[in-house]
Amino acid sequence: MNIVKQLSRILFGLVFIFSGFVKGIDPWGSAYKFTDYFNAMGFEWMLWAAFPLGIILAFAEFAIGVAFLFNWRMRLFSWLGLLFMAFFTPLTLWIALKNPVTDCGCFGDALVISNWETFYKNLIFITLAIIVVVNRNWFADKVKSKLPAIMSIGVFIVYFGIVYYSYNHLPIFDFRPYKVGTNIPEAMSTPDDAPQEIYENIFYYKNKNTGEVKEFTEENYPWQDTMNWEYHDMESNLIQEGYEPPIHNFTIETPDGEDIKDFFIYDENYVFMLVAYDLFKTNTKSQSEINALAHWAMDHGYSFICLTSTLPDEAMQFADTNQAPYEFFNCDEITLKTIIRSNPGLLIMKDGTILGKWHYNDIPSPEEVETEFINE
Q: What's the pTM?
């Protein structure tokens, strides 16, 4: 039984640390997930709280996990862990049943699991939490020094430093499909042997003599017996999901709606892409550095463009106000938020491969770009 107790505490702690860490290093990703939930539930009035709630949830998970792992103040944190699971287990059951979002976001972008898998996982972890709560005094009596407290506080300090850095720059680990090193054309392609979607078609035919509506399959539906049966309805049920490429919704559209992404993702030269999902919310503190880099890039024959979801007329107003020398093209807002966690953010590509990404706080100078990429 002692082994079961300890394993319950350690497993619970490790998973909570992982969950809190991957969400903590991507604070905007957590905020976007809360935004998805609020929009799905009709709580648009709560959108202002998406970012702070993302930060609070990530730290709460991380703190509970650290306390469990180091056996620190278990009389308090065991109850917090159980209360946490008591709230989220029924919530994830509702999400699994109603499916308001396809990904719960419990492990950020590091590990995507289905809503039902999330609920089953929570059933296991609420059981572990109950075991720890029941034995909280036994765990507390095992602590004979201040070492668990010192280790926990030390880990918290490191955690806050990493979260602060990730917020002001970019996440220290990038789990999204547009990470550095990704070749976009390859990530958009489907392997020849990839599984295909398989549907089961159910046909409903009405008997002309009795009025009965009967269910048929593709093998036996009476499409030729028009004397006795007439078509009533049909439904298709997905019985096998097909392969979905990591990148499947990337477009670069002109103001006329023409998708010209191939011009850039197959360019054998360097391509500079400024990503600003919303120009009304974009930070302009680095605009002079961006303009200088854009002038340098275009003077050297490289493409420099901006991708935004803002309307073309409004993008032109932004360009006039900020003396932006580059062209603006349209892209889906969610895609842009996925590409980079910065508004604006910059990436460099060549032959469709992402070579570098920068937060607006870290826009490189032309000299830095030449040193790192051009003259390598």
A: 0.85
